[in-house]
């Protein structure tokens, strides 16, 4: 603890320089278990995200799962828009607006279907 300065700055300084049990002694720096400084230096400017490190098929599967979820969400919107259209009074302005919304929802669902099909094809055709 620093003797000069206010209580707040003294406490803050001792916290920032505290030993947090393992790894680097400064707060905010991750412990590097099982890795030397040379390996850390070699990894600089490289992508270390799990999706990239696991391989191409894992990445394509991840994108496929996102596309499937997106398609399911779009289908829910289409179903809700269809229900609103069916409930609207025939020939009313509300039915015209509901029809426009339904057509937009179907267009977005069809686009999501294309994305899902493309992701499925890419996943199926990957060579390990």
Overview of this protein structure:
With 128 residues, the protein is an all-alpha fold. The protein folds into 2 domains: 7-43, no CATH class; 52-125. Helices cover 68% and strands 0% of the residues. It has helices at 7-16, 37-43, 50-54, 56-87, 93-125. Helix 4 packs antiparallel against helix 5. The longest helix has 33 residues, at 93-125.
Q: Helix content range of the residues, please? A: 55-70%
The total number of structural domains is 2
Global Rg = 28 Å
Beta strands, count:
0
Unreliable sequence segments: none
Global structural class: mainly alpha
Q: Which percent range describes the beta-strand content? A: under 5%
Shape: elongated
What can be said about the biggest beta sheet?
none
Q: In terms of quaternary structure, what is this?
A: single chain
Distance between the termini: 57 Å
Query: How much is the average pLDDT?
Result: 80
Essential attributes:
about 70% helix, 5 helices, about 130 residues, 2 domains, mainly alpha
Q: What's the structural blueprint in terms of helices and strands?
A:
Blueprint: H1 7-16, H2 37-43, H3 50-54, H4 56-87, H5 93-125
Helix pairs in contact: 4-5
Task: Describe, in short, the structure shown.
This protein has 128 residues and is mostly helical. The chain contains five helices and no strands. The protein has two domains: 7-43, no CATH class; 52-125.
């Amino acid at each position: 603890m620093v003797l000069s300065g206010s209580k707040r700055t003294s406490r803050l300084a001792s916290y920032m320089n505290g030993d947090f049990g393992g790894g680097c002694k400064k707060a905010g720096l991750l412990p590097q278990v099982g890795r030397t400084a040379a390996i850390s230096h070699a990894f600089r400017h490289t992508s270390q995200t799990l999706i990239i490190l696991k391989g191409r098929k894992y990445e394509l599967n991840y994108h496929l799962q996102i596309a499937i979820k997106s398609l399911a969400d779009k289908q829910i919107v289409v179903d809700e828009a269809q229900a609103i259209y069916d409930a609207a009074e025939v020939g009313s302005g509300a039915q015209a607006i509901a029809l426009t919304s339904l057509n937009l929802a179907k267009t977005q669902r069809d686009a999501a279907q294309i994305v899902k099909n493309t992701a499925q094809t890419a996943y199926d055709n990957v060579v390990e």
